[in-house]
Design brief:
It contains twelve helices and twelve strands. The chain is α/β, with parallel strands linked by helices and about 450 residues long. The strands form three sheets. An eight-stranded parallel β-sheet has the order 5-4-3-2-1-10-7-6. The chain has a two-stranded antiparallel ribbon with strand order 8-9.
Length: about 450
């Protein structure tokens, strides 16, 4: 009975340690070894863009991508969240060239980084002529590539979106003479496909916005395999992470709930586990597929705050009126307390409770074990209260913790046991109080 009580104390201490380990598994991207974090950024918006297939709207209103005030607000908000740059969706048109030039000027003044995702497919998802791709990349190189915001790696990097729709011959004709001035990344979607084109590119960026981390089999393994495949060929690997996904208004059939920030946290952690050279957040403002982390009317600013917490930048601000939890329970999904995001309100730090509980355990342990010998002897026969609950008996409190219920027999040889029993009760009770408060505080911090 008494041994079981001591085991219960040790189990509870171990459980509290596991809780700390679980709560502290977030990789702080502020470490020197952490890769830079980018967000995919779209500059195709005008006033009428927001009237079609947009389940949510930005807090900044139905803006135009020509508005420099909006662009600067975007850059500053991203910086506050720890995002170091945008990967800008672009191809050579007068409108997109004008907007990219404006963004480059703003990024330069804010010391913000940029890269380009070249849109190699047309509106109908067909590949552009390889000659068009080559000419557009030449325009980018001569017009933008030498500007300071593109100095992320040794050379400016450009992701060629849609490489799986082009033949090797087409891709070789584009990349062979242009890799001297640009880092050209493919956009292949698995390790085997990247190996097919690895000799033609300098790495790979996988734009995987629609994965459901709860249901996709081998999600982590796939990203890790892609990272290994790219690094085995000495390429750059940009791993994807998204806050959720819903493209049903644009013909899709799949939706991935945000779960109050938990989806984004899990995808960031999974992407980080694949040893990326950069993290690609999908996206800053792709509202048609509901992957935006830009603060919005329904989703609030929870996604951006979550990014800030994970990247070690604290809460993200910069957009007045942004409610960090709006949308977490209205329309974007919110799990119960056993699976909520750790982004949100503050609460009592779990480590304080655990350290206090463990300290109490260490202080009281000598009292518990001091009188070991009398307990080792069986009690002398004599009248007792009759059969009762054994050492495995217990009841569960509302936190799911086991409460040990001691029933000591009366009889000779036991007078020294009662002080020890009381000591055990004090230890167990105190730990239960501390751990219950700790778990409630952790829940409050996540909701």
């Amino acid at each position: 009975m008494r041994q079981w009580a001591l085991v219960a104390v040790l189990v509870l201490a171990g459980w509290s340690t596991a809780e700390v380990a679980r709560a502290d598994t977030r990789p702080p991207s502020s470490r020197a070894s952490s890769p830079p974090t980018f967000a995919y950024y779209y500059i195709w918006f005008d006033g009428s863009s927001w009237d079609h297939a947009k389940p949510d709207l930005p807090l900044l209103g139905k803006y135009s991508s020509d508005d420099p005030v909006v662009m600067r607000r975007h850059v500053k908000s991203a910086e506050e969240a720890g995002i170091e740059g945008f990967i800008v969706s672009w191809k050579h048109t007068s409108e997109l060239d004008r907007r990219l030039a404006q963004l480059v000027d703003i990024a330069e003044s804010e010391h913000f980084k940029l890269a380009v995702m070249y849109e190699g497919l047309d509106f109908y998802r067909n590949p552009l002529p390889a000659e068009r791709v080559a000419a557009d990349l030449d325009f980018f190189t001569t017009t933008f590539a030498n500007r300071a915001p593109f100095g992320v790696f040794a050379k400016p990097f450009v992701i060629w979106s849609g490489t799986w729709k082009f033949s090797r011959e087409q891709m070789r004709g584009v990349t062979a003479s242009r890799r001297a001035r640009l880092l050209l990344l493919a956009s292949e979607r698995n390790g085997n496909d990247y190996e097919r084109v690895a000799d033609l590119f300098d790495g790979d960026a996988y734009y995987w916005s629609s994965v459901n981390p709860d249901t996709f089999p081998g999600y982590l393994e796939k990203l890790v395999d892609m990272g290994r495949s790219v690094h085995a060929r000495h390429g750059l690997w940009i791993a994807p992470a998204a806050p959720g996904f819903d493209a049903r208004l644009v013909g899709g059939a799949q939706a991935v709930p945000r779960w109050g920030g938990e989806t984004l946290l899990r995808e960031i952690d999974t992407a980080s586990a694949s040893s990326p050279d950069a993290l690609g957040l999908i996206s800053w403002n792709e509202f048609s597929e509901s992957t935006q982390i830009e603060p919005s009317v329904h989703a609030g600013s929870l996604a951006l705050a979550t990014v800030g917490e994970r990247l070690g930048a604290g809460g993200a601000h910069g957009l007045p009126g942004a409610d960090p939890v709006a949308g977490a329970r209205a329309g974007t999904g919110h799990r119960d307390s056993s699976g909520t995001s750790s982004a949100g309100k503050g609460g009592p730090p779990l480590g304080i409770f655990v350290l206090a509980g463990f300290g109490l355990f260490l202080v009281t342990l000598p009292v518990v074990v001091r009188r070991r010998r009398p307990w080792a002897e069986p009690p002398a026969p004599g009248p007792g209260p009759g059969p009762g609950p054994g050492p495995d008996s217990g009841s569960s409190d509302d936190q799911g913790l086991v409460v040990v219920d001691e029933h000591l027999p009366s009889g000779a040889g036991m007078p020294s046991g009662r002080p020890r029993s009381r000591a055990l009760k004090v230890v167990v009770g105190a730990l239960l109080v501390l751990l219950t408060a700790a778990r409630r505080g952790e829940r409050a911090r996540r909701t």
